[in-house]
Design a protein that fits this description.
This protein has helices at about 10-15, 25-35, 40-50, 50-60, 70-75, 80-85, 90-120, 125-135, 150-160, 165-175, 175-180, 195-205, 215-225, and strands at about 225-230, 235, 245-250, 250-255. The protein is mainly alpha-helical.
């Protein structure tokens, strides 16, 4: 950066652009910030549209990513794979699972390349950059969630959430098998409430530090007990859920995950 060119003050930097300031350089800058590149054709279209219409057009409709059959075919967490593994000897089972993991990694690598090609498309670039932004908030990790199918479904949950409101997206994330596995929500019961998701819910997903207490986390963890996965689908098990009253942010009730 050239030290001879001072930055504008914040109150000026955040003012909307004037009509006269909207030119080809500004259109390119907007496209690169929303997406990953600015082609000549998309730049001219954006220049004609103006910034407001260009942003609306970029997020007009969520375009889903097609799921490869191999992502589910080589998912070691699937009921079919587990059933086949149980029928084998210990040595055969280990060899079988190693092969499933190898092929699952290949399917995941193919999915990564598929996503890169999907994201570089000008029609989906802004959408996918926003998905990346959401992934930095609602974090899951490949090291913990080894299922390529669950990782795909989790990303699709974030993608479809672009069209809705933030509370609905947060609830969808809570129900996602990828997040349930990553923060061990399915291991939380009324006898042993698990706090990681409750903590991330307040600290990272919604409120931020300083806007909740440790007691709020403990009470929220009680409310979140009983979540299970049955055939890779979210369920609330009444026998494992804490049905007692919980006090959260000064309000007392028999709160559930929702």
């Amino acid at each position: 950066m050239n030290d001879d060119l001072p930055l504008p003050p914040p109150e000026q930097a955040w003012h909307p652009l004037s009509f006269e300031a909207w030119d080809e350089d500004c259109a390119c800058h907007l496209l690169r910030r929303m997406g990953f590149a600015a082609t000549p054709a998309s730049t001219q279209q954006t220049l004609r549209d103006g910034p407001a219409l260009a942003v609306r057009r970029a997020f007009l409709k969520v375009r889903p990513l097609v799921k490869s059959e191999k992502l589910s075919q080589y998912d070691e967490d699937s009921a079919d794979i587990r059933a086949k593994a149980r029928a084998l000897t210990p040595e055969e089972r280990q060899n079988f699972l190693n092969e499933i993991r190898r092929k699952g990694q290949q399917a995941f690598d193919a999915y990564a390349m598929q996503w890169l090609n999907f994201a570089r498309n000008p029609e989906t670039a802004a959408q996918e950059k926003f998905v990346m932004f959401l992934q930095d908030i609602f974090v899951v990790a490949r090291q913990k969630v080894r299922s390529p199918s669950r990782l795909f479904d989790y990303q699709e949950t974030l993608r479809l959430g672009i069209e809705g409101d933030y509370p609905s997206l947060t609830k969808s994330v809570m129900r996602s098998p990828g997040m349930i596995q990553y923060l061990d929500l399915n291991q939380s019961s009324k006898n042993a409430p698990n706090e990681p998701f409750a903590r991330e819910l307040f600290e990272l997903f919604t409120l931020g530090e300083g806007n909740y207490s440790e007691e709020d986390i403990k009470q929220a963890a009680r409310a979140l007990t009983g979540i299970t996965l049955r055939n890779n689908i979210y369920r609330l098990d009444p026998k494992r859920h804490d049905n007692g009253d919980k006090t959260l942010f000064g309000k007392t009730g028999n709160w559930t995950p929702d």
